[in-house]
Amino acid sequence: MYKPFDYLRPRTLGEAIAALKQEGAVALAGGTDLIVNIRGGKVFPELVVDLKGLPELKGIRKVQGGGLWVGALTTMRELTTNLFIQKQYQALAEAASVMGCYEIQVRATIGGNICNASPGAETGPVLAIFNTAVEKFGPGGRQILPLEQFILGPGRTALARGEILTGFILPPPPPPPGSGTTYLRRSRIKGMDLASVGVAVLAGPPGPDGKREIRVAAGAVLPTPARVGPVEDILSQGPLTPERVRQAKEKFAEIIAPRASSLRATPEYKKKVIGELMEMALAKLSALEYRIEEVALI
Ligand SMILES: Cc1cc2nc3c(=O)[nH]c(=O)nc-3n(C[C@H](O)[C@H](O)[C@H](O)COP(=O)(O)OP(=O)(O)OC[C@H]3O[C@@H](n4cnc5c(N)ncnc54)[C@H](O)[C@@H]3O)c2cc1C
Fold first, then answer.
1. Which of 37, 70, 273, 283 is the most buried (most CB within 10 A)?
2. Which domain holds residue 144?
3. In whole angstroms, what is the distance from residue 271 CA to residue 82 CA?
4. What's the CATH number where 15 sits?
5. Which residues pair with 235 in a beta bridge?
């Protein structure tokens, strides 16, 4: 059973910050996590501060000198359909397009997805491979911090009381030709479900020696969505031969720490599937030196 609460829709960022400083105040964006949690009796706010009237959290803009600013209120649907994101930050459009269903995608925001800080948050691994920085505003003013310093653990972020996530700054991805990004995931059912395992991969253009920069981030297998440096190190050492990829898959399974209590998949499943997904992602980006047969992953 939920308790009655007050509702405020501020018109300025200052008003929103002042309201969120109050004890028991929570921010509302699309509400697809918050309202579910209020109805489920997990959160008992005294004041719900609706951010949707704040222009400072809206829009997708190119940053001077390269890169992109994505407002916290940007919905999954906007990410999926934005032509610039489809072209330059393809993995982000892909992650947004597999989230929930159409009705969720038109409400759920990227800011809410990251503030909810679920280990399986769909946009988490993708923002990680783009080396995204998070912009927040609060009583102390504006602050920019790397994504990995913003998501601190399951359900925990670096937001202090009164602070609002306003947007994300995505540096430019490696230039074409030969570079690309993708996001692949597995869930329990073909319909609507959160990811059991998710992997985002960025492949830079190949050098003359066949080496390329490879960034890999995982979702739902670590306490926070994050890049996996030891796996990237193996993959970036030389051409992606079957042996190098086998070593990287082994390392991936070794360093992830899936929860045994997960409702979606066992640790054994996740350890097996994460490497297969990474290999499929590399194949999709034409980064492999060999062809792989398509495998059925259940
Ligand atoms: C049916 C269903 C299916 C779903 N499927 C998926 C899925 O496949 N993948 C997935 O990752 N998630 C999924 N979700 C979860 C949810 O839709 C996402 O996490 C979504 O992105 C949350 O965004 P929101 O705008 O709705 O956040 P809200 O519910 O409004 O907020 C979430 C949390 O973030 C805080 N918050 C939001 N915005 C800000 C801000 N700008 N500054 C400070 N705090 C803020 C809120 O106070 C709250 O604590 C699903 C949810 C449902 C109900």
1. 70
2. 55-170
3. 34
4. 3.30.43.10
5. none
